[in-house]
Amino acid sequence: MQFSHDPKLNEIAAQVEAGARLSFADGLALYATDDLSALGKLADTVRRRLHGRRTYYNVNRHFNYTNVCYADCKFCGFYRSPRQPDAYTHSVEEALKLAGAAVAEGATELHIVGGLNTKLPFSYYTDLLSSLKHAYPRLYLKAFTMVELDHIAHFYKLSDDDVIEQLKAAGMDSCPGGGAEIFREPTRSTICAHKTDAERWLDLAGKVHAAGLKTNATMLYGHIESIEDRVDHLVRLREQQDKTGGFQCFIPLAFYPPGTKLAHLAGPSGVDSLKTVAVSRLMLDNFAHIKAYWVMLGKRLAQVALHYGANDLDGTITEGGELTESYSVEAGNEVRMSKDEIAALIRDAGFEPVERDTLYHPVAELSAA
Ligand code: SF4
């Protein structure tokens, strides 16, 4: 029996079965197929080969330390200019208070990201990390995207290695995957002209990996980008992973237009989101984990995405997402799920929930050790 009514998908399925790497053209063909269920099945085969029925989540909190930013990205509804009444920068004391509440609720990770705020001294970043690490040594600090690291290096005239080493010494345990958006030009310059370019983002990720820290990687899809842009993005991430190997997880981020300069766009459909998860799983053969980021997908679609190659639902989260929390709240998605709720979603989808720490160690095994 044929795997699919799409002959090209059958060819690709044979390559996947043989463990062959998929090409740029294969990526385009995967997106072009009208056989969504066969595409999902193929991605699910790879996901089960890697992880069986295990589906990861963590207990985490997000801390967006400032929303002041000069970068003016067209897809961003989060940033504010310093004079806007709702512009904010949190103090270290506020961070400690939030972290304390998170630890009391069982959080194992604090995800720390913010805008590019030129009013902050470099010591703000190191004080923030070292104070948190001193007060809560077991709380994993996943802090600062490659865009923030690039800003810090340029603005404070430090070398990349100095920035990474000083932040690492202060308590930075790993880095989140934001700021990748879409690498390919001219799309990148159209949506985020003032942001770190693709080569720089990838180069910095490699330097963080070389310093012994893990990072994640994202792709913002569903705005003005083409399918070629998306596949190019995945191929570039795969090439970087071949070189430095430090990416843990890939997170496709569904664009949510309201509140942005691209508010006239519709954003991605449910089918587009499922395809993107599946194509990511199939193209990123050297990434261990693909995340269905429920904050952006919504709980229901994220649950379905577990059958399209995703093996991680992210976390319980409280404040924010990948700088996109306001979108999700406006969309009516609660930016919080309890452990029981996440586990129930995973079980209901036919998978086995595993609470993990940031490095994907099962928390139950760590507690038993
Ligand atoms: S996405 Fe990040 S860098 Fe761009 S405007 Fe928003 S906060 Fe600034």
Provide a compact summary of the structure:
By secondary structure, the protein is of the alpha/beta class. The chain has helices spanning 7-17, 24-32, 36-51, 92-104, 122-135, 146-155, 160-170, 187-191, 198-210, 227-244, 270-283, 294-297, 299-305, 325-330, 339-348, 363-368, and strands spanning 54-58, 60-64, 109-113, 140-143, 215-221, 247-254, 289-290, 312-315, 352-355. The strands form three sheets. Strands 8-1-9 form a three-stranded parallel β-sheet, with helices on one face. The chain has a three-stranded parallel β-sheet with strand order 2-3-4, with helices on one face. A three-stranded parallel β-sheet has the order 5-6-7.
| Low-pLDDT stretches | 320-333
Category from helices, strands and their pairing: alpha/beta
| CATH class placement | Alpha Beta
Give the overall form.
globular
Largest sheet: 3 strands, parallel
Termini separation comes to 48 Å
What does this structure look like?
This protein has 369 residues and is of the alpha/beta class. It has one domain (53-368): TIM Barrel. 45% of the residues lie in helices and 12% in strands. The protein has helices spanning 7-17, 24-32, 36-51, 92-104, 122-135, 146-155, 160-170, 187-191, 198-210, 227-244, 270-283, 294-297, 299-305, 325-330, 339-348, 363-368; strands spanning 54-58, 60-64, 109-113, 140-143, 215-221, 247-254, 289-290, 312-315, 352-355. It has a three-stranded parallel β-sheet, with helices on one face. Strands 2-3-4 form a three-stranded parallel β-sheet, with helices on one face. Helix 4 (92-104) links the parallel strand 2 and strand 3. Helix 4 runs parallel beside helix 5. The chain is globular and about 60 Å long. 50% of the residues are buried. Residues 320-333 have low confidence and may be disordered. Iron/sulfur cluster is lined by residues 69, 71-73, 76, 78-79, 115-116, 147, 192, 195, 323.
